[in-house]
């Protein structure tokens, strides 16, 4: 089973599809600005839970942010938790100016 993730900017989300299966297996909604991307909601279809669809979405979305040189604001609990478990992505997290020391 291969999970393929694609950015769909017109829908403002990343979509995951599984080879040979119709429809979207999951998605991660975002709001993008010139400086950052805020991930606001991630959802995996119940029949695809436990099949690494959410992880594929998170990895592709965060790799996309890195490639675009964008910071990440993870308001979605799933994306925030995924980043917490994968320290190699924590450098992408947005830091507000008030929390950055001079």
What does this structure look like?
- This protein is of the alpha+beta class.
- Helix content is 24%, strand content 31%.
- It has one domain (3-93): Gcn5-related N-acetyltransferase (GNAT) (Aminopeptidase, 3-Layer(aba) Sandwich).
- It has helices spanning 53-67, 77-85; strands spanning 3-8, 13-18, 26-32, 36-44, 71-74.
- The mean pLDDT is 93.
Helix-strand layout with pairing:
Layout: E1 3-8, E2 13-18, E3 26-32, E4 36-44, H1 53-67, E5 71-74, H2 77-85
Parallel strand pairs: 4-5
Antiparallel strand pairs: 1-2, 2-3, 3-4
Proportion of residues in β-strands: 25-35%
CATH level-two architecture: 3-Layer(aba) Sandwich
Strand order of the largest sheet: 1-2-3-4-5
One letter per element, helices H and strands E, the order comes to EEEEHEH
Percentage of residues in helical conformation? 10-25%
Provide the CATH top-level class. Answer: Alpha Beta
Morphology call: globular
Mean pLDDT: 93
Number of strands: 5
Estimate nothing, just give the exact number of structural domains. 1
Radius of gyration: 14 Å
- As residue ranges, the low-confidence spans are none
User: What is the CATH third-level topology name?
Assistant: Aminopeptidase
